[in-house]
Amino acid sequence: MGNVSRVLITGAGGFIGQATVTAAKEAGLGVVASGRAQIDLGARDATAKLQDAMVQCDAVIHLAAAMGGSAAEHDRVTINGTRAVLTAMQGADVRKLVLVSSMSVYRLEALAPGEMLSSASEVDTPETARDTYARAKCEQEALAQKAGIASLTILRTGIVYSDTRLWNAHLGIGVGPVLFSFPKHTALPMCSVTHLAQTIIDEAQHPSGGAHLVVDPELPSRGIVIDQLRQTGWPKLVLPFPWGALRLAASAVSPIDKKLPGLLRSRVLEQRMYPMGRVDAGALTWHPSESQ
Asked: Which end of the chain is less congested by CB atoms within 10 angstroms, N or C?
C-alpha cells in the first residue's frame, strides 16, 4: 500500500490532537490538521471539505468525537462525523485509517472473576452500551469496520493524561476544595498522551490492524494520581467517598437508571469502580514528571 508521508488528523486542536500533530511532525510526516475551526464534522458540507483536505494524504487519523453533551450532539459529531470521514476517504482514495476509540466500549460484566481486560475482551453494541458516550463510540467503531477500508487500526485508549492534566472522573467527586475519593488502592488505566500520540503515528506508518487497548504498562493507584494532583494545589482536602452506599442506591433505582445522573446508574458506577489493576497493560511506564 506504499509508504505514509502525509496524514490528515481530525480533532487536531484537542488535547490528544495537538500531541499527535507534534508526534507526526517529529516523525517527518506532512500534516493536514483539521479541527473545528477548519471543518465542522457535523455540517452538511463536511464530506466535501474533508475530501478536498485529503488530497495527497496517505492516511487519516480520526480523533474527533463529542466528549459530552446530548445524544443528538454525539450523533452529530461522533457518528455523522465518522460517516463523513469514511465517505471522504472513499472519494479521495485514502486507504489507511487509525481510529482512536475508548476502552468504554468494553463490556466489563462479561469478564470472568479474575480475568484481565485485554484488547480481545468482549465489547458492547450500540444497543447495550452503558451510556451515551460509549454508545457513540461503539457505533463509530462499527461504521469503520463495515466501511471496507484496506487498513484499519482501532486504538481503544485508557484515561489519557499529562503532568498538567491529571484530573479524571475515576478519581472521585470534587466539591469546591474537597475531593471525595473512590478507593485509593485501586489502579487506574492511565495512558500518557505522549505514549498514545506515538502509538497513533506508529500505527499510521506501520499498521498492525485490528483493535487494541492502549494503556501504560504500570498502572498507578488512585492514591498516586491524587498525590500528584495535589501538588498542583487541588484538592485541599481528600475524604473517602461512601461508594458502597451509592452502589446500593444505584442498584435500587436500576429499573429507571437511564433517566438518572451517571453515578446513579449501576453500569456507569461499576465502570468507575472496576479494579483496573486487572487491565492488560501496554508499553510505557507511568512517569508523570516526564509527560508533556
From this structure: N
- What is the rounded CA–CA span in Å between residue 154 and residue 211? 4
d(CA 292, CA 271): 27
**Angle, CA 161 vertex, CA 69 and CA 235 arms, to 5°:** 85
Question: What pLDDT digit, counting tens, does each position of 93-129 carry?
Answer: 999 999 999 999 998 878 776 778 888 889 999 998 9
Amino acid at 250: A
Four-residue CA torsion sign, 182, 188, 193, 194:
positive
Cα angle for residues 226, 231, 234 (degrees, 5° grid): 70
Tens of pLDDT, residues 74-89: 999 999 999 999 999 9
pLDDT confidence bin for 270, thresholds 50/70/90: low
**pLDDT tops 90 at residue 288:** no
**Mean pLDDT calculated for residue range 176-200:** 91
First to last CA, the chain: 33
Phi and psi at residue 276, in whole multiples of 5°?
Answer: -70, -5
131: its cell numbers: 451510556
Contact present, 30 and 6 (Cβ < 8 Å): yes
Cα separation of 184 and 222, whole Å?
Answer: 5
Domains for the chain: give ranges and CATH numbers.
6-162+188-217+277-284 (3.40.50.720)
Whose CA is closest to 220, among 180, 192, 179? 192
Rounded Cα–Cα distance for residues 205 and 30 (Å): 12
